[in-house]
Amino acid sequence: MTEAVATPKKSGLTPSTIRIGKRYRANRLNGDYDAIVIGSGIGGLTAAACLSHLGYKVAVFEQHYTAGGFTHSYCRNGYEWDVGVHYIGDMGVKTTLARRLFDFITDEQLQWAALDDCYDRIFLGEDHFDLVAGRDNFRNNLIQRFPQEKAAIDEYLVRLNKVASAMQAFTVERMLPKKVAKFTKLVRDRVQPEYFNRPTRQVLEELTSNQTLIAYLTGQWGDNGMMPAESSFMIHALIAKHYMYGGYYPVGGASRMAETIIPQIQKTGGEVFTYAAVERILLENGKAVGVAMKDGTEVRSPIVISNAGVFNTFNRLLPKEVSDYTGYSQKLNTVKPSMASLCLYIGIKDSAKNLNLPKTNFWIYPNENYEQSIKSFLADANSDIPMVYISFPSAKDPSFEARYPNRSTIEIVAPCPWEWVEQWADKPWGKRGADYDALKEDFSQRLLEKLYQKLPHLRGQIDYYELSTPLSTEFFCWYQKGEIYGLDHDPKRFEQTWLRPKTDIEGLYLTGQDILTCGVVGAMIGGAMTAINIGGVKALPLAKKIFVG
């Protein structure tokens, strides 16, 4: 067939053949566990792998049919797509924190392939600018395009480095006992750059009035889900610096992450269980003592780690009276869920090489005024889509052609408020009705047109496509509003000192992207923080190995 309908035929609705983890059955539980992790996203897997290194026997419970959270992959109609991993930075050398951590939790079994030197191409209408790998290349490319802004560009790069340095103290502070952390925060507030946690656009407009330059510098704002006027400069700086030396892709696809981490968890008798829905966290005398599974089985452990996000943890996994009594119900009012999205998964019956697909990500915007474009879109869904991200995973993965000969894949991501699909939330997955299918088809065609505008030779080449919406995210990843980055990364979020591994409920810990920052590496660092917090003095060599090298 040529261009299929967005909703697949019934034969295409079968679950993925990529199933990482051990299917849960109560009789497959292996005795007592030293720790339980709720959710197998990269933060939960990292926490479990680090605890295993410390000798803990850990059970990870994942409600989905495969492990990995947003790092999982799925197959349909002879194609494979990664649902959340589009590129990772800082993988080119083994000395970066991100690479050290990945190598540690995978026992160096995960391999990486570099994207093109131009890892991100930012389109503003008909114009575009390339973000290129290497600090000097990045700087020189900017100065060549904006020669009058040399001083602003140099100061911008200085600020990226200063934020990265200040982030070390911020991270350590989240692992310290509350009383100590309160003191260190007072010290940190005095020595960190004053722009550390101010709105991104505000900080950049102090450096330059050139809005086109600002738009290109902030063109990756979709990597944290907040527009420059709203996001913290901290998260902008971390992302920009993270990709400064290029983007990388896991050889074999994103599912290789969980696949290479799980053996480390199993070394001490632990396991990662799939189809393992946790109903609630068990409490006795105000202390977390295990979890109750959906099938009624109770699994006991002195340590419970939630990688399910703070809203799920305190609103769904704990009794309301407990969240009220401990103050977490009120604390949740200080943060908001991040953006939700659409993702169009595309398959073509030809190789990435034949199709000349790039190893470069496309960020497509109608103009440089990101905030106004989003405002117009939210007021009228038929207006121009304000942000479109296009990734070419089959071109990035050197093993793809061998695994799927003469096939290639493309993914297109765009924002979509939860409210636009909420009316179908009570309908079963795959059977939400003609109106929902029509909405998906309309967005699919609009996103395909964005692709054809940049790569017109692909028109008529599409063999298969299907669209996911925030309802898909809610169904598979259990995020109530379909959010993809956990919490919004605005300045207020980073002032919340309760977002830390250790909760006020004895035996209960948090991990993943909500306790530090979003993204694969942010969630991984969150996982390591949680394990180190639990291990205490015993974990100091681990902390040194990961954070110092």
Q: How many strands in all?
A: 21
Biggest sheet character: 7 strands, mixed
CATH topology heading of one domain: FAD/NAD(P)-binding domain
The CATH level-2 architecture of one domain is identified as: 3-Layer(bba) Sandwich
**What is the CATH top level name of one domain?**
Alpha Beta
pLDDT averaged over residues: 94
Query: Helix count, per DSSP?
Result: 19
Helix- and strand-based class?
alpha/beta
Shape: globular
Question: In CATH, what is the homologous superfamily of one domain?
Answer: FAD/NAD(P)-binding domain
User: Considering DSSP H and I runs of 4 or more, what fraction of the residues is helical?
Assistant: 25-40%
The value of Rg in angstroms is: 23 Å
Strand content: 15-25%
Query: Which ranges are low-confidence, i.e. pLDDT below 50, for 5 or more consecutive residues?
Result: 1-16
Report strand order across the widest sheet. 9-8-17-18-19-16-20
Terminal CA distance reads 52 Å
Describe this protein with a few key phrases.
549 residues; FAD/NAD(P)-binding domain; seven-stranded mixed beta sheet; six-stranded parallel beta sheet; 19 helices; globular
Question: Could you outline the blueprint of secondary structure elements for this entry?
Answer:
Elements: E1 22-23, E2 35-38, H1 42-53, E3 58-61, E4 73-76, E5 79-82, E6 88-89, H2 97-106, E7 112-114, E8 118-124, E9 127-132, H3 135-145, H4 150-175, H5 178-191, H6 200-207, H7 211-217, H8 233-242, E10 247-250, H9 255-266, E11 271-274, E12 278-284, E13 287-293, E14 298-300, E15 304-306, H10 310-317, H11 320-326, H12 328-331, E16 341-348, E17 361-365, H13 370-379, E18 388-391, H14 393-396, H15 400-403, E19 408-415, H16 434-454, E20 462-468, H17 470-477, E21 508-510, H18 519-535, H19 540-548
Parallel strand pairs: 1-11, 2-3, 2-15, 3-11, 8-17, 15-21
Antiparallel strand pairs: 4-5, 6-10, 7-10, 8-9, 12-13, 13-14, 16-19, 16-20, 17-18, 18-19
Helix pairs in contact: 1-9, 1-18, 2-19, 4-5, 4-8, 4-18, 18-19
